[in-house]
Amino acid sequence: MGLAKATASVIRQFTGGDYGEPALGEVITGESLAEEGLGNPVAFAHTVIDWYALSTGDLLHGTAEVSRAEHNLAFSSAAIARSACEYAQIASWLAEPGVSLEVRIARSAHLYERSVRESRKTLSAEEFAEYESQRANSIGWARRTLSSGQRLARPTDRFKAADPVAGQWHYSHLSDLAHGGLIAVAQTVEMARADNLEEGVLERLWKVLLPCSYTLAMVERLSKLRGRPSGILDELQLVYQNYARLLEAYETELRSR
Prior knowledge:
Order of helices and strands: HHHHHHHHHHHH
Radius of gyration: 20 Å
């Protein structure tokens, strides 16, 4: 649990202003792209990255808390672990080093426009009209800036891209627990009833180590993008590697059931 909390805490070192290169150059160039009433679109893109990165830290810390042995929680830890992985993947996608400014901006625009579309599902026609009117400038900017090639992939595809070998299973297993898949529910409840101490420890450890792996990959991208090397990040990655084989062995066992 200490690795998860330390990883969650270190995220703040890679967010906020005072960027190094290449992020600093991106933001400076973005000043020439600013629109009246909207500001610098590249600075906004970096702010969106920060929002998702900091949210990942919140969720990772929460995963560690609910995975503590004294709580003996299986389902809530799975739901939070899945969310932590998803947020880390989104931040990693936004913070991909080496992409053009147009791509960086288009990705944040896509997320904004997607949020607007999702709001339509929960608001009445009258409420949505008011919602859209209040955000007319920013919605117009997002729709003008969209690029068909820069849409966030589906969660399953994001997990597969992050881990071609086990990513799809990661998402499927965590989702089964989060959404009440009968087989996953039965296996988890019966494992708890069996009171197998070793297996219970491995299950809790797996649900913490998995989001740690996605979060560390995200932080590494932030470090490169913002020009902020960190000895602490290197240490955390070494600690994670000490657990990595255990994680792989337990996954293999789970997938065989």
